[in-house]
């Protein structure tokens, strides 16, 4: 709503509204007290409403009966929960490694049965993979070495070019000085 559309309430209507609200709240509070008086003394009723908010009384919490059944949680369930999880994880890792070893052994047995050779296929596969990794590492090292040598060569070429430029400039200077000191320079023909 815009402020232009809002209607200004007069103070008398506000007083009437507040009085009606207070009367309603008081009526609810009286009704609650009346209901509490009519109930038996062993039954305690606590109402929660906007009109009758109050702090919970200490006697509202009743102690448990002696006849109620007590359930106790065993200490072993409360303690060492983290250790059990770690033990389960270790067991799962062991099972996984054993199954992988068993799978490799099966592949090896199948290869020996099929080829009639004593060398298991899994061992050969591992050897080939190891050789492949080694070759890949050597290629990377060689590539890095070549890159270093190329950058060193480029630096040396740059230094040589700078030295040649300086030598050329020095030769030009000497030639100019020699030309200026030449006695035949001033002779006209």
Structure summary:
This protein is an all-alpha fold and 189 residues long. It contains 4 helices and no strands.
Tags for this entry?
single chain; mainly alpha; 0% strand; coiled coil
What can you see in these coordinates?
Residues 139-173 form a coiled coil. Keywords: Coiled coil. This protein is mostly helical and 189 residues long. The chain has a domain at 85-180. The protein has four helices and no strands. It has helices at 11-38, 75-78, 81-115, 121-181. The longest helix has 61 residues, at 121-181. The radius of gyration is 50 Å and the shape is flat. It starts with 10 loop residues before the first helix and ends in an 8-residue tail after the last helix.
Q: Radius of gyration over alpha carbons?
A: 50 Å
Instruction: Note the main sheet.
Output: none
Structural class, from secondary structure content?
Answer: mainly alpha
Helical content class: 55-70%
Shape: flat
Strands, total number: 0
- Helical stretch tally: 4
Distance between the termini: 110 Å
What's the rounded overall pLDDT mean? 75
Order of helices and strands: HHHH
Low-pLDDT residue spans = 52-56
How large is the share of residues in beta strands? under 5%
Structural topology:
Layout: H1 11-38, H2 75-78, H3 81-115, H4 121-181
């Amino acid at each position: 709503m815009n402020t232009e559309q809002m209607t200004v309430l007069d103070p008398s209507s506000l007083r009437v509204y507040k009085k009606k609200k207070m009367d309603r709240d008081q009526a609810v509070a009286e009704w609650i007290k009346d209901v509490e008086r009519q109930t038996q003394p062993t039954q305690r009723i606590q109402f929660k409403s906007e009109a009758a908010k109050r702090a919970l009384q200490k006697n509202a919490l009743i102690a448990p009966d002696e006849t109620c059944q007590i359930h106790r949680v065993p200490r072993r369930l409360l303690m060492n929960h983290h250790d059990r999880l770690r033990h389960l994880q270790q067991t799962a890792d062991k099972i996984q490694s054993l199954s992988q070893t068993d799978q490799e052994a099966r592949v090896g047995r199948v290869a020996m049965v099929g080829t009639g050779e004593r060398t298991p296929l899994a061992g050969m596969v591992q050897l080939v993979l190891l050789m492949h990794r080694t070759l890949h590492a050597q290629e990377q090292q060689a590539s890095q070495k070549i890159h270093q040598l190329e950058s060193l060569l480029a630096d040396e070429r740059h230094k040589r070019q700078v030295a040649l430029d300086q030598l050329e400039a020095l030769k030009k200077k000497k030639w100019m000085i020699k030309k200026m000191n030449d006695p035949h320079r001033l002779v006209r023909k």
